Amino acid sequence: MEGRDLDGNKYFEIPPQRYFLGMRENHKLKRIVEPYGIDYNAKREPGLLPTKITNEWDSWLRLRRTDPPTIEELEANIEQYHIIQERVKQLEEKVHKEKVTKVNPEINPGKEEQTVDSWTGPEKR
C-alpha cells in the first residue's frame, strides 16, 4: 500500500509484471485505488464508483507525479481551500454592498443621482 487519503481510500502501486517462459510481459507500472466503504455487490454501472479522489491523488494515479501525496500536503491544501472560500465570500459581500448603494441613492445621500440631463444638459436635448 502506498498511502491513504483523508476520506479513508487506499492507494496501491503494482510493479511491472514479468512472467516465466516469455508468455507475457507487462512493462507498465499500474496504480489503483480501493475506495473506502464501497459495497462491491451493489448494482451500479460498471466502472463508476461513488467516491471522491483529490487532485493530488488523481495526479499520482495517472502517473503525473512520482511520489504519493502526504497527509500534511492534503491538509495544507484543504486549509488553503477554506481560506480562498472565505475570501470569495467577503468579496461577494463587498460587491453586493456596492451594488445596493448604486441602485438606492437614499442609502448613499452624499452622491447625486446621474440622469441624461446631468450629462448633456437641458439645452442639448
UniProtKB/TrEMBL annotation:
Leader sequence residues: none
Domain of life per record: Eukaryota
Pfam family, one: NDUFA12
InterPro entries in the cross-refs: ComplexI_NDUFA12, NDUFA12
Region feature (Disordered): 103-125
Similarity field: Belongs to the complex I NDUFA12 subunit family.
PANTHER family the record matches: ADH DEHYDROGENASE [UBIQUINONE] 1 ALPHA SUBCOMPLEX ASSEMBLY FACTOR 2, NADH DEHYDROGENASE [UBIQUINONE] 1 ALPHA SUBCOMPLEX ASSEMBLY FACTOR 2
Protein name, per record: NADH dehydrogenase [ubiquinone] 1 alpha subcomplex assembly factor 2
Lineage of origin: Eukaryota, Metazoa, Chordata, Tunicata, Ascidiacea
